[in-house]
Amino acid sequence: KTEAEAAALKQRIAAGEAFDVLAKKHSTCPSKKRGGDLGEVRPGQMVKAIDQIIFKKPLKVVHDPVKTQFGYHLVQVFVHHCCDNRAAGQPQSAPLRPRSRSATGR
User: What is the rounded CA–CA span in Å between residue 14 and residue 92?
Assistant: First the structure.
């Protein structure tokens, strides 16, 4: 898949088409069965380019296509559930519930 295809899908979402419906139809990522829903993720669980969007970009925005070694992706994050586990001796983490549409070349 190409950046142009991912950009075209982003335009369709902006025009009112449902992210999850397009993900089920166009994604080659295993998450396509769930409409692109990746579930909760922690920092470092995804490739760096996706992590940068999930943990540093605004919520509820379909971000521009991002390229990884797996292809081009559209990412939309809905909620940040921040947990501070330092008191329990665990590293701080921010599990999230992102929803992503992935157009990959697999």
Answer: 35
